[in-house]
Specification:
Elements lengths: L2 E5 L2 E4 L4 E8 L8 E6 L6 E6 L6 E3 L7 E6 L4 E6 L8 E7 L18 E2 L3 E6 L1
Parallel strand pairs: 2-11
Antiparallel strand pairs: 1-3, 3-8, 4-5, 4-9, 5-6, 7-8, 9-10, 9-11
Length: about 130
């Protein structure tokens, strides 16, 4: 099991950048594919980005491709989401998640149903 705490959210103007962090505790972080999801008011939670346990493979939703970058530092038990060129439609609560099931080194997990552990979320608001 992995405990997750997100930080780095805030209120920014369109075009600005933010970097979200997700600090993990627990023995399985370095063996866990990680992901970022978001949920806007009145909408379902949606996939944003995922990274394999070693960091060698990443995957992005089309809506953020080219603007967001997911990365991880296993020595610091932290996964990041660098968000550039933010748009008002990026406004949401952002959650990080850990897939604690055994996985291959290049496995990325895309479905929220496959993630066992979730953080409490951090609010990102982008004004126009």
């Amino acid at each position: 099991q992995v405990q997750l705490v997100e930080s780095g959210g805030g209120l920014v103007q369109a075009g600005a950048s933010l970097r979200l962090s997700c600090a993990a505790s627990g023995r399985t972080f370095s063996s866990s594919p990680m992901g970022w999801f978001r949920q806007a008011p009145g909408k379902e939670r949606e996939f944003v980005a995922a990274i394999s346990r070693g960091g060698g493979r990443t995957y992005y939703a089309d809506s953020v491709k080219g603007r967001f970058t997911i990365s991880r530092d296993n020595a610091k038990n932290t996964v990041y989401l660098q968000m550039n060129s933010l748009k008002p439609e990026d406004t949401a609560i952002y959650y990080c998640a850990a897939d604690s099931d055994p996985s291959g080194i290049f496995t990325v997990t895309l479905s929220s149903d496959q993630y066992e552990d979730w953080g409490q979320g951090t609010q990102v608001t982008v004004s126009s």
